[in-house]
Amino acid sequence: MHRTYVGIDLAAQPRRTGLAVLREDGERCVLDTVRVGAGDDALIGAVSGAAKAGVDVPLGWPRRFVELLAAHAALELSAPESTGDDWRRDLAMRATDRVVHRRTALTPLSVATDRIAHPALRWAGIEARMRDLGLDVARDGSGTLCEVYPAAALRIWGLAHRGYKGDKNQVPRAALVDTLSAREPSLDWNGHRALCASADDALDAVLAALIAREVDHGRAVPPDPEHLELAHQEGWIWLPRETPQEVGL
């Protein structure tokens, strides 16, 4: 019996959104679909049939940031002792962003202060539609969805995690596809290898699907008890386990 994993590299515009559908059948993993250009309906349809779907976009905003906006709108914001870097950083970063930084030394883009907010706003609308359809859209990864960060996963796997995006980086991106193939010998690109080498949105969608498979098989790190309640609201970036010792995390 096969299981299907979906990877989504979400952009604000459908034309830049990557979508991958990975079918695991025994020891084989076949990429049934890889495309760049996916509207909301296509994404919802793909997620609806997935065992797990990895989404490369923040699923929520920092709780303290949300609370600040509400207090500011109501003219009830308490004056901080300082508006310096630490105060603003604490508002801009989610709990999961800090955990990712501690583990990988990579800092996810801030959904509160960076342009990643535009894809996140699109996802908020998609999430609402999926919730209306009865899909389990829990942001902590306990349902169908899990938030992913391909660059951090690549770093944990010991693969090139920088310098593979954009038209100018076709050569290193093709090299990354080669090394990923060597690491995942069961992966059947099914005719989609060239697209992934030429378009980073397609490659990131494939990586998101592969990470979703890791989550489904218990080979990724869930929210720790300290952050579980926050993860329900803010989202949680699922990172692959690096070593056997991490199984107890």
Automatic annotation (TrEMBL):
UniProt cross-references to Pfam families, sorted A to Z: DUF429 (PF04250)
UniProt-listed InterPro entries? DUF429
Q: What is the protein's given name?
A: DUF429 domain-containing protein
Q: Which organism is it from?
A: Brachybacterium vulturis
